[in-house]
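Sample entry as discussed:
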Amino acid sequence: MPSTSLPGGTWTLGDLTVTRFGYGAMQLAGPWVMGPPVDREGALAVLREAVERGITHIDTADAYGPHVTNRLIREALHPYPESLHIVTKVGANRDQQGGWPPARDPESLRRSVRDNLDNLGLDALDVVNLRLGDAKGPRPGSVAEAFGTLVELQQQGLIRHLGVSNATPEQVAEAQVIAPIVCVQNMYNLAHRQDDELIDALAEQGIAYVPFFPLGGFTPLQSAALEAVAARLGAAPMSVALAWLLQRSPNILLIPGTSSTAHLRENIQGAGLILSDEDLAELDKVGR
């Protein structure tokens, strides 16, 4: 039976209501996010399980595979429930070496939006994030031309809402001068707190912050501190890390990815862990 009992409640992206606990589809593609999944039926099953569990926010990109993940989403879920909202990214392609070369010129962005529409089987995309920077993180530079191209596509009715990903605070501000945004998607977790000020500023504006790599890049010392708190609570470290993100700020939306239905259920259950003020104070030291 479908369940709507998800940790964190909901958030509004423009005029779209989504569950704060979402699902990231990146891991559905093959190794290194290239080619078909190792277990195709399992990939389809986890997508259907996500919707059955009440998740209404799926994050994807046509570069995953490339094209593989979006086609799996379409096969598993189309025609989409009215409550389901798919957020995608443009601004990077894949090369034969598995790299992510930038593709932010106007024609590449137009082609990527068309590919997302075709492979997802949609007439309009709910939210499109402009991916900036590179694999090492955000990089300074103007977003005006690239973001302006997406605004044109929005005006044509192909995109409903816009966001930015892998962006500096300055790029977020520049994009907002050009057009409204509904979300920012950057690397952030308990150990990587560089966007603390940005998260708080966005919360005041009613803009979502969507962290990727919720348990990535921890030093051994930081991992040990997280594991100590998790052991005291009788929970998995990933559960504590996800729960901490949900309690960090009401505008944080989670998109943990997995290709396993069992792991999906564990993530949902774990994110519902309630951390005490004492737990939060101890965890706060991990990223300092």
In short: The mean pLDDT is 95. Strands lie at 10-13, 16-19, 23-24, 57-59, 85-90, 125-131, 159-165, 183-187, 208-212. The longest helix spans residues 106-120.
